[in-house]
Amino acid sequence: MKMRSTLFAGLSLGLGLLAGTQVWAQEVQTGDPVDGTVNIDASVAPKCLFTGDNPVQLSLGELANAVGNLDTSKVNNKSVTLHAWCNSAGSQMHVETTKLALTPALVPNPTGFVQQVDYTASALANAKTATDDTSVAGPGSDVVVGIFTGDVPVTLSNASATGLLLAGAYQGTVVVTLTPG
Amino acid sequence: MNPRKLLIASLSLGFALAGAGQALAVEQVSKDTAQQTVDVGGTVANLCILGTPSQTSINVGQMVDTSTTNVGRITTIGNQTVSLPGSFCNFAGTHLTVTADALLAQDTSTVQPGFSRAVNFTSTVTTWANTPPVVTTAATLNGGTPTASGFGGDQGAPKLTDLTLTLSQFHTGGGDNLLLVAGGYTGSVTITLGPSAAE
Q1: Coil, strand, or helix at residue B141?
Q2: What DSSP state is assigned to residue A73?
Q3: Smallest CA–CA separation between B133 and chain A, in Å?
């Protein structure tokens, strides 16, 4: 008897579920709208990018004047225009320079001559200027440039060399860094 | 130790490292720093400059003895010097060349027996390379072959220095026993500082 009761209870539960299904089907058939929501999420990471060739060459030509000293006009105001963008308000820029140096260096340095030229480089982005001078070790200070896209002119100035320049090829670098933030 | 357990431990470590690598890559992508390099280049040409000479002409004055038994013949003429401060070459492999023209009488008429119209001298320039240029003119008594040149040694490094030209050992062309023709005499010394080999 007890086993029979259990069987009935199981059947009742099965019918109950079947009845429930029928009720739901009837509701759909009535034409009432239902909503299904899909939440979509995504993100855009803070990013900065230089577009165009990398590296670029800034050729200054002959650095010495007729009597062997630095012709500062060959360095000062010489510029090259980079192109970049940053997509976040906290983006920063700094510049790091290396001296224009005779390559390869001459060791020992002959008395009365120099084989390095100091200068300042400045980069302009979104009306904000970052600079670095080769006479000071390390990169220049960060400046906040924010969100921008467009030209980044890099200009040299303040060239100096105290002595006669040794003959040969001189090379230096200006590295402009954009850090998204 | 159970070899099976050891193998599993190794694999687990491998996966953990791979996972860390993925995390690092994601971080780099999420905050891209951009760098642009501007290579700056220039050149300095080979250059040699002779300093401004302390004097551009030398007057040795009266060249003959006027009061002794040697009257009319060459007297002792002291050394003459000219400095050229701040002379330099900004590259290695240079040398000095000195070209001298003997002192010749401006009177170009035929030289009479017993006379000479030439005064020779020695020129040297110090100090550039270890071996200085030295040249002695060898004009004949009538003024022939007045020009001579001398080359100094090779200077193996760029150099900045004060050069000194010295004229010495003045002698009569054809021999000091000859009488010198009266009148003005002119000569010259040309110093050239440049590459040892033709460029």
Answers
A1: coil
A2: G
A3: 22
Residue numbers in B near A65 (CB within 8 A)? none
Distance CA B9, CA B45 (A): 66
**How many domains would you assign to chain B?**
2
Is B87 in contact with B193 (CB distance < 8 Å)?
yes
B45: CB partners within 8 A, 6+ apart: A62, A64, A167
Q: Which domain holds residue B77?
A: 48-198
Q: Are strands A148-160 and A92-97 parallel, antiparallel or unpaired?
A: unpaired
**Terminal Cα-to-Cα distance of chain B (whole angstroms):** 78
* Interface TM-score (ipTM) > 0.95: no
What's the number of CA atoms in the CB half-sphere (13 Å) around residue A154? 29
Q: Kindly provide the residue ranges of all beta strands, DSSP E only, lying in chain B, ordered along the sequence.
A: 34-44, 48-49, 80-89, 94-105, 115-116, 118-126, 134-136, 147-151, 159-172, 179-180, 185-195
Question: Closest Cα to residue B195, out of B161, B148, B152?
Answer: B152
CB contact under 8 A, B47 and A156: no
The tokens for A19 are: 């009845």
- Clarify whether residues B110 and B189 are in a common domain: yes
**Distance between CA atoms of residues A171 and B158, nearest Å:** 20
Q: SS3 letters for B144-166?
A: CCCEEEEECCCECCCEEEEEEEE
Residue whose token pair is 């480089």:
A121
Q: What is the pLDDT along chain A (181 residues), one digit of tens a residue?
A: 344 444 444 434 444 444 444 444 445 556 788 899 999 999 999 999 999 899 999 999 999 999 999 999 999 999 999 999 999 999 999 999 999 999 999 999 999 999 999 999 999 999 999 999 999 999 999 999 999 999 999 999 999 999 999 999 999 999 999 999 9
- Residues from chain A contacting residue B36 (CB–CB below 8 Å): 50, 54-56, 82, 84, 152, 175-176
Task: Please check whether residues B9 and B65 belong to one and the same domain.
Answer: no
Residues B69 and B127 in one domain: yes
CB contact under 8 A, A167 and B45: yes
| Whether the predicted model's global pTM rises above the 0.90 cut | no
Among A129, A133, A155, smallest CA distance to A143 is for A129
A111 contacts B33? CB cut-off 8 A? no
Cα separation, A120 vs A103, in Å, equals 20
